Each structure stands twice: as structure tokens, then as C-alpha cells.
Amino acid sequence: MTFQDEIAAFFADYVDAFARSDANALSELWEPVGLFPSPSGNFAMPRDRFRDHCVTLLDFYRQQGGVRPLGELLSATELFPDVAEARMAYRMQGEGGQLIAEWEHVYILRRSDRWRVTLTIADGEMAAWAARGAQL
Q1: In Å, how far are 20, 40, 109, 130 from 17, measured between CA atoms?
Q2: Are 45 and 30 in contact (CB under 8 A)?
Q3: How far out from the chain centre does Cα 69 lie?
Q4: Both ends of the chain: CA-CA distance in Å?
């Protein structure tokens, strides 16, 4: 499997876990501690807290009318052996397939037993939901 295939497969699993509302599967796709730079400040979150965050995030998506997440891998670059940068485009669809929100996300991944997210920059998602008037 090529590097591009591996990263595409990782994000297929990632989007699928969101689509199934599986907070446990999502949290397992992260390193034990994930980093979150944001416009309001940087923070780190251990996996168990991130799992709880996923539950909250999935509830938030449902409250916004989202029923189907779609993701497209825009780019993936191997920065160093077993370290990658990836950019994803996401669209959240509601009932009937209408577009609820769309954004881009940047990730840094590291491969140990498998690829896992180490860091994400979610500014695009935060801006997309704020533009809809959602309280984050």
C-alpha cells in the first residue's frame, strides 16, 4: 500500500467513525494525547477526555441538523518517516442531503502501530459553525 493509500484509508476510517457516531473508534484514531492549536489558545487533551469531547461534538452536529459527514482528502505529505501532514475538506449534510456546513481541517499524523492524529488545526471548522450562528 502506498503512503497516499494509507492516509486515504485512515481518513476513510475517520469519517466512517463520525458517520457511525462512534466516539470510541474516533478517540482510538488519536495519539494518547492530542494537540489542538486554536485562535483562542492552544491546549492538549488526553484520549479519555477526547472521547468525551467526541460525544459532545457528535451531539453538537446532530443539534445543528447534521446527519451525514463527508470527507475528501485534499493533500497528504510525508514530512519525515512515519510523520505526515494531511488536509481534509469536510461537508456536513442534513436530511435530504442539503449542505449544513463545510470546512477544511489540517492534521499532523504519526505512525506507530497505525497512523494516528497527533495535532489538528480546526480553525476552518470553528469559523464555519460560527458563521452559521452556532454557539461553540
Answers
A1: 5, 27, 17, 24
A2: no
A3: 10
A4: 39
Contacts of 41-45 with C-beta under 8 Å, sequence gap 24+, read none
User: Residue 136 is which amino acid?
Assistant: L
Reported for 86-91, long-range contacts at CB under 8 A and 24+ positions apart, including other chains, are: 86/7, 86/11, 88/11, 90/15, 90/125
Show pLDDT as tens, one digit a residue, over the chain (136 residues): 999 999 999 999 999 999 999 999 999 999 998 888 877 888 888 889 989 999 999 999 999 999 999 999 999 999 999 999 999 999 999 999 999 999 999 999 999 999 999 999 989 999 999 999 998 7
